[in-house]
Amino acid sequence: MTSDEIREKYLKFFEGKGHARITPAPLVLESDPTTLFTSAGMQPLVPYLKGEPHPKGRRLVDSQPSFRTVDIDEVGDNRHLTYFEMLGNWGLGDYFKKEQLEWCLEFFTKELGFSKDKLWVSVFEGLPAQAGTKEVPKDTESAERWKQLGIPLERIHFYGVDKNWWSRSGPPDKMPPGEIGGPDSEIFFDFGTPHDPKYGEKCHPNCECGRFIEIGNSVFIQYEKKEDGNLVELPQKNVDYGGGLERITAAVSGTPDIFLSDLFESTIRKVEEESKGSYGNNSEKDRSFRIIADHLRASSAVMSEGIEPSNKLQGYVVRRLIRRAVFHLSLLGVKDLSASISRISKALWPKISGAMVQESERFEKALSKGTAILTRRLETSGVIDGKFAFDLYQSGGFPLELSLEILKEKGKEFSEKEIRTFEKEFESHRQKSRTASVGMFKGGLADSSKEVTKLHTVTHLLHAALRKVLGEHVSQKGSNITAERLRFDFSHSQKLTEEETKKVEDLVNEQIKKDLKVEFEEKTLDEAVKEGALHFFGERYGDRVKVYTIKDPSAGPGPPFSREVCGGPHVSHTGELGRVRILKQEKLGSGVVRIYASTS
Ligand code: SER
């Protein structure tokens, strides 16, 4: 069975159980500036898990491309990826544990033909009451259900919040206010490979030895974290199931290595050709093959959504992925790195090949410069210390592995102590950058979501006002919102004059003073466009879109002040917004102007 067949079987199976198929969200969400990537199928569905009705009903199914930056350092084993496809089904205040566990098992055993003996499950062991938080009970209901369904007790394992609790930010104490989550029950495929005692005395489903691979997670999303730290029950009980297509495909083939599946076949083959080596020999080189295959596939997926390698946000992640892939290509003995990347990317991802090659050329330069610096240093002082190697890494992206290799070639060794110095510097740097990106994923969302929501609505008002003052040629070219300010790019040939700026600000502030209702309706994109709703990036919208309207009821018939297709969220009345001021403008060249604005 190919991965395409498995995906289709899954979608059909749940359609058969009354689920509506929904279009997946893009990896880079335009309307969610608080996160870098869609990292789980539930992410675009949060409002519906919290109780807003979904236009397609209470049972949904999809396959959502997902990206997890936090897993970059895990890639290299038999089962971790940064970019993967997550099969998902949702019960939004509809069915719950009883049906979900039954269907999950039915899908794996009947549709994919897994023998029940190969399936193990995990269940939440409960969380005792803590200061300010009530107890979350042990999930005996799921355990009972698994037993009824024929999974024997010895294959049902209980774990705590680290393994069997799911929210975007992790266990309950890590969840910011407003975040939703709940206990979960995972299902594992047993490949039957021998246990490696290096990973502990006894093997169990969550053991790291590689015998078990998690193929699905049924999350029972029923809690929301409140400002006071308490978990409270949501108005509805939800099911959020997610299973990695790559891992399920590996289980179907009975081979505990996702890189041997058809999803990676062409990439691995290309890398074999380039390196004149072969994958799957359990040698050190396998790790490099996997890193290259994951990183190139992941960066091509992000780049195909219009992201270029850069020093910022998603662009930076792409840069890191490409550079790391190129470096591992060099570890496989490839000499002409960019030419090699060019051949691989032209064959597999022709549309983004140019940008990928450019980035590898930049990295190749950094590599040869770094090599020269290192060699010179060695010749003059005879030693390289950890601090020097770290600086080289930090300033030129020159990896430690490469420093070590060059030293080895020159018959020198880096002492354990020096490696530790490098690692200490590296860790403290990584902590800093982790904190920054974690803030982006989590804290950012909680602390700033209210401000961001407000500025979202201001953006609509501003867009409408700009069109009224400057003309209908004004259309959105980009938008970015942080808790402090909004940024809006639009088509116009020159910066606004002082008078125009004042007119735009006044027009926006008038609408705010009138405390107009912000309303939305769901419809198809066609209907929305027909009624004159402004829209952006047409191809990225789902089947049904939300149209937000801001209208002054006393202004009589005629078009509303603003009408735009948008995912939201927005404030409910313009009166919630402060006074808007345009802070600064820039001309971005070729007919695009950028303005920054904030509210006071
Ligand atoms: N939200 C859960 C996960 O990402 C299941 O879909 O694993």
UniProtKB/TrEMBL annotation:
<dbReference type="GO" id="GO:0006419">
    <property type="term" value="P:alanyl-tRNA aminoacylation"/>
</dbReference>
<dbReference type="InterPro" id="IPR002318">
    <property type="entry name" value="Ala-tRNA-lgiase_IIc"/>
</dbReference>
<dbReference type="Pfam" id="PF01411">
    <property type="entry name" value="tRNA-synt_2c"/>
</dbReference>
<comment type="similarity">
    <text>Belongs to the class-II aminoacyl-tRNA synthetase family.</text>
</comment>
<dbReference type="Pfam" id="PF07973">
    <property type="entry name" value="tRNA_SAD"/>
</dbReference>
<dbReference type="InterPro" id="IPR045864">
    <property type="entry name" value="aa-tRNA-synth_II/BPL/LPL"/>
</dbReference>
<dbReference type="GO" id="GO:0004813">
    <property type="term" value="F:alanine-tRNA ligase activity"/>
</dbReference>
<keyword id="KW-0694">RNA-binding</keyword>
<dbReference type="InterPro" id="IPR018163">
    <property type="entry name" value="Thr/Ala-tRNA-synth_IIc_edit"/>
</dbReference>
<dbReference type="GO" id="GO:0002161">
    <property type="term" value="F:aminoacyl-tRNA deacylase activity"/>
</dbReference>
<dbReference type="InterPro" id="IPR018162">
    <property type="entry name" value="Ala-tRNA-ligase_IIc_anticod-bd"/>
</dbReference>
<dbReference type="InterPro" id="IPR018164">
    <property type="entry name" value="Ala-tRNA-synth_IIc_N"/>
</dbReference>
<dbReference type="GO" id="GO:0005829">
    <property type="term" value="C:cytosol"/>
</dbReference>
<keyword id="KW-0820">tRNA-binding</keyword>
<dbReference type="GO" id="GO:0000049">
    <property type="term" value="F:tRNA binding"/>
</dbReference>
<dbReference type="InterPro" id="IPR012947">
    <property type="entry name" value="tRNA_SAD"/>
</dbReference>
<dbReference type="GO" id="GO:0005524">
    <property type="term" value="F:ATP binding"/>
</dbReference>
<keyword id="KW-0547">Nucleotide-binding</keyword>
<dbReference type="InterPro" id="IPR018165">
    <property type="entry name" value="Ala-tRNA-synth_IIc_core"/>
</dbReference>
<keyword id="KW-0436">Ligase</keyword>
<keyword id="KW-0648">Protein biosynthesis</keyword>
<keyword id="KW-0067">ATP-binding</keyword>
<feature type="domain" description="Alanyl-transfer RNA synthetases family profile">
    <location>
        <begin position="1"/>
        <end position="600"/>
    </location>
</feature>
<dbReference type="InterPro" id="IPR050058">
    <property type="entry name" value="Ala-tRNA_ligase"/>
</dbReference>
<protein>
    <recommendedName>
        <fullName>alanine--tRNA ligase</fullName>
        <ecNumber>6.1.1.7</ecNumber>
    </recommendedName>
</protein>
<keyword id="KW-0030">Aminoacyl-tRNA synthetase</keyword>
